[in-house]
Each structure stands twice: as C-alpha cells, then as structure tokens.
Amino acid sequence: MLLRPEPLERDDAIATLEAFIAAGGYRPGDRLPPERELIGRLGVSRTTLRKALDALERDGAIWRHVGKGTFVAAHGGGAGSGGLADLSRQVTPVQLMRARLSLEPAIAREAAINASDGAVTRLKLAQDRCVEANSWDDYEAQDDAFHRAVAEATGNILLLSLFDHLNQVRRAVAWKTVIRRSNRPPSDHSSFAEHGALVAAIEARSHAAAHAAMREHLKSVSARLFGDD
C-alpha cells in the first residue's frame, strides 16, 4: 500500500499536474479526472490542487466548464491564452470591478428577458448551494457557478463567452488580493440576500430590476473585498 505524501507546495503541484497530463497522453479536448480523483492520485490537498488548476487555466493549458469538468486546451500557451495571463498580472481590483460592472448587469438584464423555466430552476439551485457552502473554497466555486448560471440563462453564447473570459481574469485577481479571516461565509453573508434579489428579479422577468440587482451586488462585493467606496 502506497503512503500518501504530504501536500505539495503550489509550484510543485503545478509541475506534478503538468507531468500527469503529459504522462497520461491527454490530448486537446480531453477531460481530466474529477478533482476528488486528482487529489488522491497526485497526493495534494483540495486547496493546492485548485490553485494549480487556476495557474494552468491562466496559462491557457486547460479550461474549465462548471458542471462538465476540466479539459485540456487546444492551444495551451498560445497568443490568446497568453493575453489572458498578461491581463491577470496587469489588471487592478478597481479595473476588474469596473469591467464587471459594465458587463454583468447587462447579462442579468438579458437573463431576465430570455431565461427559461429550467434556467430559473438552475439559478435557484446554484443560489442554495452558495448558502450551503461549508468553506470559502466551496463558496467561491458555488459563487462561480451561480454567476455563470446567470450568463447561461441569457441563451446568448457570445455573452457567455465574454463572461467566461472575464471570469478567468477575475479568479486570478481575486486569488492574488483576497484575504479571508474566517473558515466559511457567515450565515448573514450579504451576498446571500443579494443573490436572492437577483434570482427574484430574473424569475419575475423584470429586466430593469435584474440589472439593478446585479449592479448592487457587484458594488457590495467590491466594497467588501477591496474597500471601495
């Protein structure tokens, strides 16, 4: 029986993950094993694995789809992915939030206009999973899924693609700047009520209310994480 090694440092985990992909013969478009399996096979903690996956995604080596898995990118390290990696290093928190405030309220508006009943159901499920998260890592993953569900509800593949690109940069900037002072979100975490207001507006097909709810949510996030006025 093999003994599980101690968790590797982040840089070691990145190298180990890259070696695993190469040794496994994974080709562009192939899906990697789920996180739980990777944790066991690589001997890393969940947090370390996610940081390694974030780094490879920023470098364009992989891409992730919430609910479907992690895939080997077709052109890892190419010009397009390099552009995202450069943006992740150059964008400030204020610039990031201005970009989100420009795009995501418009996405919420389109979601209110176009969301199917199934899309609303998926939004409610994503909202519940945020509340049920038992750690910040879990909350951030569920929050990612919630915001992507809003973009999916638009039924507009171009808006979804724009959201995905912005979200890749957001994850990199947040990872560099956010400091958590608790193990999990508190029960009165402001985002829970803000998510609820957004879902209610989309379900009511109120595009103006959805736009306003997303804008208020992002302003609250900005103030909480980065101390904006």
Structure description:
With 229 residues, the chain is mainly alpha-helical. The chain has two domains: 10-77, Arc Repressor Mutant, subunit A (Orthogonal Bundle), CATH 1.10.10; 91-226, GntR ligand-binding domain-like (Four Helix Bundle (Hemerythrin (Met), subunit A), Up-down Bundle), CATH 1.20.120. It has ten helices and two strands, in the order αααββααααααα. It has helices at 10-23, 35-42, 46-58, 79-90, 93-114, 117-132, 136-153, 157-177, 190-203, 207-226, and strands at 62-65, 69-72. The chain has a two-stranded antiparallel sheet. α5 runs parallel beside α9 (190-203). The longest helix is centred in the middle third of the chain and has 22 residues, at 93-114. It is globular, with a radius of gyration of 18 Å. The termini are far apart.
What is the CATH H-level superfamily of the largest domain?
Answer: GntR ligand-binding domain-like
CATH class of the largest domain: Mainly Alpha
Radius of gyration: 18 Å
% residues in beta strands: under 5%
Tally of individual domains: 2
What pattern of helices and strands is seen along the backbone? HHHEEHHHHHHH
- How far apart are the termini? 56 Å
Largest sheet: 2 strands, antiparallel
The strand order across the widest sheet is: 1-2
Would you count the extended β strands for me? 2
Helix- and strand-based class?
mainly alpha
Tally of DSSP helical segments: 10
Report the average pLDDT across residues.
83
Provide the CATH architecture of the largest domain: Up-down Bundle
